[in-house]
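Fold it.
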Amino acid sequence: MIYGAWLARSRYRSQTTPAACSSRAAAKISVATDILGATGRGIIQAIIAGQEHPDWLADKAKGRLRGKRPELRLVLRGRLREHHRLMLRELMEEMEFVERNIQRIEHCSPVRSGEDRAALYDSGRRSGHGVDPVSGTGFGYERIWGPKNVSSWAGLCPGNRESARKRLSNRTRKGNRWLRRAMCQSAWAATRKKNCFLAAFFYRKAGKHGLRKAIVALAHRILVIAFCILRDGTEYREVGGDYFDRIHPERTRNRLVRRLQRLGQDVLLQPRADAPSALVGNLDSISKRGRPCKCSQRGIPCKHGR
């Protein structure tokens, strides 16, 4: 875990340094969005090989950057010396060395391979932390009692500080910074996945508690799921992004109807023929908040307008 985080940090440093080195020679490689993409790597390798003419360097553009070759010719007119080529060569060799180590660490990870690993650690791999979460604790599965202990070790549990029955700060404790960092970055990557339970969980919490608390809650949920799957040898089951809407469909329907009514819209709901019966419910009676009306049971005229 610690070595993987150090490699990810080294890769980020190696990716940002070539642009700074080339800018000192007045060659702005950063005109490309991805400096180390196919175009960026081709230009850097050509500079290392000794090419200096901007027309030759601009011809290394690929994809949509080929339409920006005139702009590339203007920004690649620099004063490249042997010192700059030496620094670019050393930086590219260092970056390739770090990338090879990251790939070797990911393939040698104790996490099981297959669809479960791809489904659970897809977001973690994108952030550079698709590794076994228990390896960051320093213990084995037999030494850890349960997911609550792992969350406490990682510092992802909310604080419970009280004094004289008064609730004080609920800040998280300072746990294992490497495991906490890996889970939080994996949580940020999971929020960008479509039709995913983890993304729905994040936006459900963010609307009430804010982004920072929601990302810690999502990191806690990812750690608990990963620990249970790796300990029990079970499969990860994706419940979908509409999981919370399917728990209480009538509440979701009534909330959306009230929202449209506040905008001055008259809503008439008609169930679809192909809709599941469990999601249709009774569309005629849209309940409101508060205690139910009992005027009909008492035999008196209703004054509530329901």
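Residues 119 and 236 are 7 Å apart (CA to CA).
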